[in-house]
Amino acid sequence: MLNLAEALETDLWTLDVLWWSVLDDGLDLDEPPVTEEAAIERRGFSLEKQLQIFLLDNWARTQIGQEWDLLETPENPEAGSQYHCPAGRIDFLAKHKTDPRWLVIELKKGQTSDEAVGQALRYMGWVKSDLAQGEEVEGLIIALAGDKKLEYAASMVPQLSFMRYEVNFSLRSPSESSVQAAA
C-alpha cells in the first residue's frame, strides 16, 4: 500500500476511501458502467467517519441540533461524539434542550439493515441503566438508506426512529449567495 500510495502520489487516507468505495459498490466489471448522475444519486459518504464529522461540524444547523444538545462534560465539550461505554461506542449521545430525555444516535454510512436496530437498542439500554436516572431514552438510526427489515424492526420500538440522510452540494457565484442571504 505504501508503494502504491507513493506511485500514485497520494496519501493512505485517500487510498482507503477508494478501496472501501470499490468494495462497497460490489463492482462488477461485466456490468455496463453506471452514469455519473446515477452514481452521485446513490452515493453517500464513503466512510462513516465522514458522516460523523459532517454532523458534528454542522450540529446546530441540523433539525436534530435544533432540539438536542450533544452531551458535554467539563473536561470534554465533545463527550457526546464517539461516546465510549461498556456497551460499545455510541456515535452521538445527546440530551433534549428542554425535556428530561436522552438520544442515542447510530450512524451508518450507506444502506443498513435490522442489525443496526440491535446495536442502537444495546446502547439505549446502557444509557437507560447507567446514565438516564429515570429519564426517557430514545434512539435514532441515520443512514443513506434502509431496507424493509430495518423498517419492520424499528416499527416495533416506539422509542426508535430512522432517518435517511442526503448529500447535497452546490456552487454559487458570490452574487447569488448575497442575494439569497438577504432574502
Describe what you observe in this structure:
- This protein is α/β, with parallel strands linked by helices.
- It folds into two domains: 41 residues, no CATH class; 117 residues, Trna Endonuclease, Chain: A, domain 1, CATH 3.40.1350.
- Helix content is 42%, strand content 25%.
- The chain contains eight helices and six strands; from the N terminus they run H-H-H-H-H-E-E-E-E-H-E-H-E-H.
- Strands 1, 2, 3, 4, 5 and 6 form a six-stranded mixed beta sheet that branches.
- About 10% of the residues have low confidence.
Summarize the structure.
This protein is of the alpha/beta class.
Q: How much helicity do the residues have?
A: 40-55%
Uncertain segments are 25-42
Beta fraction of the residues?
15-25%
User: Could you describe the largest sheet, including whether it forms a barrel?
Assistant: 6 strands, mixed
Distance between the termini: 50 Å
The CATH topology of the largest domain comes to Trna Endonuclease, Chain: A, domain 1
CATH architecture of the largest domain: 3-Layer(aba) Sandwich
Tell how many strands the DSSP assignment holds.
6
